[in-house]
Amino acid sequence: MPEIFIAFSYKDVLYLLQAALVTIALCAMAFSCGLVVALAIGLMRTARRVRVLRFVAAAYVEVFRGTPLLMQIFIAYFGLSIIGLQLPKFVAVSIPLILFTGAFMGEIVRAGIEAIPRGQWEAGWSLGMSYGQVMRWVVVPTAVRIMIPPSVGFLVQLVKGTSLAYVVGYVELTRAGYIVSQATYATMLVFTLVGLIYFGINYPLSLASQRLEARLKRHA
Amino acid sequence: MTYTFHWQVPLQNLSLFLWGALSTLQMSAVAVLLGLVIAVFCALGRLSKRRFLRLPAVAYVEVIRNTPFIVQLFYVYFGLVAVGINLDAYTVAILTLTINCGAYCTEIIRAGIQSIHRGQSEAGLSLGMTYLQVFRYVILMPTLRVVWPPLASQFIATMLGSSVVSQISAEELTYAGMLLESRTFRTFEIFFFIAIIYFVMAQAFSILFSLTGRRVFRRAWGQL
Hints:
The complex is a heterodimer of chains A (220) and B (224).
Chain A: H1 10-45, H2 51-65, H3 69-82, H4 89-114, H5 118-126, H6 131-162, H7 173-184, H8 187-219
Helix pairs in contact in A: 1-2, 1-4, 1-6, 1-7, 1-8, 2-4, 3-4, 4-6, 5-6, 6-8, 7-8
Chain B: H1 8-11, H2 14-47, H3 51-65, H4 69-82, H5 89-114, H6 118-126, H7 131-161, H8 173-184, H9 187-216, H10 218-223
Helix pairs in contact in B: 2-3, 2-5, 2-7, 2-8, 3-5, 4-5, 5-7, 6-7, 7-9, 8-9
């Protein structure tokens, strides 16, 4: 083999693990910020009186669920530079992931709020509580419990989604795997490792989501 | 903002995008249909009492559902080369999409099978229905009715997810965009345009599937 190839060593494994931390950081950023977007979307979609809000939120969800995440990343990434924003790569890649999370989690928030029977709202109002008070003391405590299992399930989707940051050259786990495989030619070994790391992150989340859902069903 | 948009770039290359969109649809349709075949066997495996049938099916579903599609794609693409099989990117793309889709469809089919209670077919038989009638009216139609909406979403998810196969230069809609981009450097306009095409296709198929479902399963609904 020519000299430019480096033999695969434990250092590459460390590099991949480091990249896995980047993936997790990206995921944490997208999830925490996306949750704020999702709350807004969920509240807008369940606004009974204001039709415009419902429409805007529904359109937002449809657009982000009806286009490939890959396109969203491309458009946001190149769009940001067109409007003259020079952002660090981490932030530029986070933005489409945040918006993507907002759409999917927004639906989970909506489902959670809508699962609360109308009668509970009316009971709250008849006690003289405001929209905010009913939300805070009646709806949220129950809705959150309903929202947790699908949210954990969505995390799996998000971790997989961060792998698409690969396409704009951001070095997360998948890109790191690609780099190592090109440098060492240990392609199968590298992608097996990359797959195992993703599986190691996602499988516990999948299991947790299933367990939480089963528990919720038992209590309901 | 000093950027001038050049929307004529995507608009002048509509035939390229049409070709890409058809290719994407063809790819997704083949993947979903083949994936369904895998899914039926795997769903039966997952529900089997025999461990040696259940475990491989469970492992397959869990591994595929918990790893990103792009990693699966690279794995198959480079893996086949490593074992000495040379397939073109398009075939590899369909193969990986099928494997991926199979795992998701397995869960859908399993849920469909589990939704039919055992007592229902016994009830049908005791009403004097023949085995064929029981199969058609009590098992097949209600199962299809249960799996239809999630299968429709799965088709759309596969169609949107298939944009990733452009990364191994398999020829479809996103790849068509990348081709044009490499010649014109109008990245934003091209990908914005392509996103619109995907969106329209997703909406159209979503409506199409729900209308078809309503029409085909109207009788099954009436009977329940």
